[in-house]
Design brief:
About 75% of the residues lie in helices and about 0% in strands. With about 450 residues, the protein is mainly α. It has a two-stranded antiparallel sheet with strand order 1-2. A hairpin with a 5-residue loop joins strand 1 and strand 2. Helix 5 runs parallel beside helix 7. The radius of gyration is 21 Å and the shape is globular.
Length: about 450
């Protein structure tokens, strides 16, 4: 693996000094981080997989289940992410990510063994704390100038891990629930045994992250600023980025609400058993989510898109998601519902990924970790915290048999009506041509030095 150091005396076209990364980040590292992100979202998705067994075991409402998937996780996730921003930037990224994975694995185990609703809430809070510092640390590596396959494609592969993680949790969890056929496993209820089984791969991932500590792309390209400095930049030269923050949060609301409640919609509206509904949604997401995420990376990674705004791809994804939501509400058969869900997953995922990719060249290197921390904390607090919970709360107030579907559709349409004008009106401000040119200069320099 290449470890040569590039010439630190380069400057961007705008005159700012550049310190090139010490190493080129290989494809294997990108895939490992995507794999850990996959595991994170498998663990995060468990309330969706076992929603009906949870309701039966603890006599919960839709709002309470939505709170497990949303506020119980998102509030601590956002707060812990901001707290970690003050000290985590001083910790070697791969060692930090291994610690995060170990902590959220403990939260997943606590969820599986909980015997009351408050314990379920506490376990989800621990999961949020554990996952808080992982994504910003991963984006330090993937957002550096030395990513061999390019920043846009690397970030889209990473976010594909989150989308396929949701599908993997639904698919694997649903299949295991079907295999259990309602029988206890080693004295545990099926949903508890399944929850424990899905965290076992985390042990191997912890070992892999520790093995990379101090190696491939583990150091940030230049000293990283704190949250206060990043916030000052956002309020000054980075004011345009704040609009992208709001748009990204809106897109994530749709993604999280749909991912949480689609299995329950198939169970209630079409009579599918809980396990089969989870497997079917897992298959839908497994195909549709990577399509949306990788499409965003392909579009924004094209030469013709260099130095251009991510607003148009985001707007296209939002329009398609609104059309798919209306189609879901009108679906009179299971095949029609499946088709609508597939388009909804792909389009909403493309819109959300476009926002995260578009953020990377807008943030200067020294602020990128902190800006990503602020972005992910805010997006998670709004998108993850509100999307599933609002949908469940609206459903509880509806007496119609299709109340859950209607609530989801209403939320997605409201997001589109709000975010579309924002993207179209502010999109031209989400451009950083000099940053893009500086990025290419740094990559070329690292590769020349490596040769």
């Amino acid at each position: 693996m290449t470890t040569d150091t590039a010439d630190p005396r380069q400057r961007r076209p705008d005159g700012e000094a550049v310190v090139a990364p010490a190493r080129i980040v290989g494809v294997g590292t990108v895939l490992l981080l995507a794999g850990v992100q996959f595991a994170a979202f498998v663990d995060r998705a468990m309330p969706s997989v076992v929603a009906q067994p949870l309701k039966d075991a603890f006599d919960l409402t839709d709002g309470q289940v939505g709170a497990l998937q949303g506020p119980a996780f998102a509030l601590t996730y956002a707060v812990a992410m901001l707290a970690a921003g003050h000290w985590a930037r001083r910790v070697e990224p791969f060692r930090l990510m291994a610690f995060c994975l170990a902590l959220w694995t403990a939260g997943s185990v606590a969820f599986a063994l909980a015997d009351s609703y408050p314990m379920l809430v506490g376990a989800r809070m621990l999961l949020g704390i554990g996952q808080a510092a992982f994504a910003p640390a991963a984006l330090v590596v993937l957002g550096s100038a030395g990513v061999a396959i390019g920043r846009a494609r690397a970030v889209s592969i990473f976010t594909t891990g989150s989308a396929t993680g949701r599908s993997g949790g639904l698919l694997l969890g649903g299949a295991l629930l079907v295999a259990a056929s309602g029988a206890s496993i080693m004295g545990l209820a099926p949903w508890r045994a399944v929850s424990l089984a899905l965290v076992l791969p985390n042990i191997a991932l912890i070992a892999a992250l520790l093995a990379l500590s101090g190696r491939d792309g583990s150091s940030p390209p230049e000293p990283s600023s704190g949250l206060g400095q990043a916030a000052a930049w956002l309020c000054g030269n980075g004011r345009a980025v704040l609009g992208l923050f709001v748009a990204g949060a809106g897109c994530v609301i749709s993604v999280q609400a749909a991912g949480t409640w689609m299995p329950s919609i198939l169970h209630r509206s079409f009579g599918l058993p809980v396990g089969e509904a989870a497997v079917l949604v897992g298959l839908i997401v497994l195909v549709a989510a990577p399509t949306g995420h990788l499409s965003a990376g392909w579009l924004l990674g094209r030469q013709s898109m260099q130095g251009r705004s991510p607003a148009l791809p985001m707007a296209a994804g939002l329009v398609l998601s609104m059309i798919a939501a209306v189609g879901l509400s009108a679906a009179a058969s299971l095949p029609m519902a499946i088709a609508a869900m597939a388009v909804l997953v792909a389009s909403s995922g493309m819109a959300a990924t476009t926002a995260l990719i578009g953020l990377q060249p807008l943030a200067p290197d020294r602020y990128r970790r902190a800006v990503n921390t602020l972005y992910l904390a805010g997006v998670s607090l709004v998108g993850v915290g509100l999307g599933p919970w609002i949908t469940g709360a609206l459903s509880d107030r509806s007496s119609a048999s299709a109340g859950l579907t209607t609530s989801l559709v209403q939320l997605i349409l409201a997001v589109g009506v709000f975010v579309l004008p924002l993207a179209l009106l502010q999109g031209e401000r989400w451009v950083s041509g000099s940053q893009d040119r500086g990025q290419r200069l740094r990559v070329d320099s690292v590769r020349r030095t490596a040769e």
